[in-house]
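Worked example 2:
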Amino acid sequence: MNIYELIKKRRSIRKYEPKEIEQDKLERVLDAARLAPSGKNVQGWKFIVVRDPQRKEQLVDACKGQKFMAEADAAVAVAVNEEEVYQGHGNYMTSFAVDGAIALDHLILAATHEGLGTCWIGAFDENKVREILQVPQPYRIVALTPLGYPAQEGRDRGRKSLDEVVVFETWK
């Protein structure tokens, strides 16, 4: 499957099989995240892989009751060191959120290629996640995803047309 087919195939999965991810497959997916670009190539991230059932249940609560977080074989959190990253992104912010988002997107696309499901989780209580995973300051949690074998197909939620989201040269 080429990259464009892969991008179109990716879906948010909210139901998982009780099946363990093979170690080599997990490592390939994590390696894809590691290879993502980051501001000034700082690579200020950590990927926290959670497989312990009790800890995944705690993450369900920290992720606003999204029960499928505990169904998947693993949950992955992306934490980025806010002080270590590029400090002048856009000349107004640090790159921690962008760096973490790009890395998680690499992970999600690699997971899709491997036949695994994911679901971008942005609805979470950072302080609860930080406590559950024992994440030190100055790391910030950017997002999480369940990672496992899909028990159902994700639905196509549609996308806006190119005409709705692209302009050339200037805004007008």
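The mean pLDDT is 96. Helices lie at 3-9, 23-34, 53-62, 68-71, 96-113, 126-133, 162-165.
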